[in-house]
Amino acid sequence: MATAALIGAGIGGIATAIRLAVNGWQVTVFEANARPGGKLTDFEQDGFRFDAGPSLFTLPHLVDDLFRLAGENPADHFRYMRLPEICRYRWNDGTRLVADADPEIFARNIEQAWGEPAGHVRAFLRQSAFQYRTTENLFLRRSLHQPGTWFSREALRGYLAIPKLDLFRTQHAANASRFQHPKTVQLFDRYATYNGSDPYQAPALLNLIPHLECHEGAYFPVDGMIGITSALEKLAQRLGVVFRYETPVTRILVDRRIATGVLTESDERHVFDRIVSNMDITPTYRRLLPDEKAPERILGQPRSGSGLVFYWGIGKTFPELGLHSLFFSDDYRKEFEDQFIRKTIADDPTIYLHITAKYRPDDAPPGCENWFVLVNAPANEGQDWPVIIARTRQHILTKLSRLLQTDIAALIRTEAILDPIRIEQRTSSAQGALYGTSSNNPMAAFLRHPNFSSRVGHLYFTGGSVHPGGGIPLCLYSSEIVASLIGKPGNTTCR
Ligand code: FAD
């Protein structure tokens, strides 16, 4: 039987393994950690369970598709709910806004809160939907590095739409021209952070992101975010995929410009017909392919933002907080300058709070909540993290204590911390970036590594550091692209 190796059991790796197994490959996944999921994992501590990484779940049908491909009913194995509200927003001046899942109510709530005409929000969301629909089939579901992509019907539609896609100004400039109130601008600028970017640099095309939440919906898996990983791992196993945990790959074996196998840390050599790396593309070249010429221009692209997360077991419940809550800063521009230019964390950071116990009471002891507290952070460039972490922790506690009118520090029963260094240690993500390379450059989509190697045959790449980018939906798209590039065993037209 034709064989394929996956290096890494992140979401992109597992999804690719499933697709290849469905296509008839015998797949083995080598994972350095003891568990699957990479960034999409969880942990328990002192009676609290925390989803450790992603918390925002959109486009769940991309997960369902994997079950359907395998001939299974997704609802039998993976359940999720559509959220009635997307996020509860708060500002330092006391303003509050609930982003309702119904875009019409959302628009009217904004008008009521600070007078931005609801029509502005409606028009913005229409444009967001247009941007998403025009680019989805061209940029996200296909390899940008295959000539066929550029001569397709979708490409033609894309070319015709270029003047309306808002490609030539920044996201912030577009939002500032569309909305009259700074809070509306800030609210929609925030979507740049969904792929670790800076709205003051990133192209306005990123305004396609709100369409996903506001029209397609925000979701939550009933088993928590870890439910995505667990359900897909089990599906892969049912398809015969073999997972080898605590088995880091140390080399991709190459013979006469063809990838032929992998070498593991314990010096075992395994021969395969196809190799797919779900490891971040930079360490894939630096560590696993040291004898191959690395694409320095691509690897040298600036990294996306990272995150600093405090996981706090809190000895109280807060009815005013939702599954997702966000506390904005007063000076958003300075916050991004701090992150992307000064490479530090602002003194008044925007704070994102995720509490799964709102929907899964067992995630915290009775009367308690499991807080996932995230602030945007720069990728690791050797900053003095212990100092930044201690300072930011204090700023967060002061801000939340003031806005929630409670001494939060006194309520912390247990604590864990995730920072850019730990993200890199646990997942090999270069510099601890959450989403691979940043989308701050308008050409970023073309500066991500392709899903295949143009120098080494039978070698492919999946996951958040390669095309089309980071975040769960894009990692799932990358698996679709890789599987279609590889094709079925015996298909000699594949790369
Ligand atoms: P990764 O998760 O990067 O995993 C790669 C895997 O490969 C790891 O398990 C690693 O151990 C393994 N590996 C690496 N090298 C080797 C080797 N040599 N041998 C064997 N195994 C190896 N996305 C969203 O969509 N929504 C969110 O709300 C969101 N929030 C986030 C918050 C945080 C704090 C973090 C950390 C991430 C967040 N993301 C979010 C981003 C999202 O988690 C990632 O884009 C996605 O999970 C990356 O998946 P991946 O397939 O690239 O693999």
TrEMBL record:
SUPFAM superfamilies, A to Z: FAD/NAD(P)-binding domain
Gene Ontology MF annotations: oxidoreductase activity
Involved pathway(s): Carotenoid biosynthesis
Pfam families according to UniProt: Amino_oxidase
GO biological process: carotenoid biosynthetic process
Residues of the Amine oxidase domain: 11-485
InterPro entries: Amino_oxidase, Carotenoid/retinoid_OxRdtase, FAD/NAD-bd_sf, hydcarot_desat_CrtD
Key words, A-Z: Carotenoid biosynthesis, Oxidoreductase
UniProt family annotation: Belongs to the carotenoid/retinoid oxidoreductase family.
Protein's UniProt name: Phytoene desaturase
Organism: Siphonobacter aquaeclarae
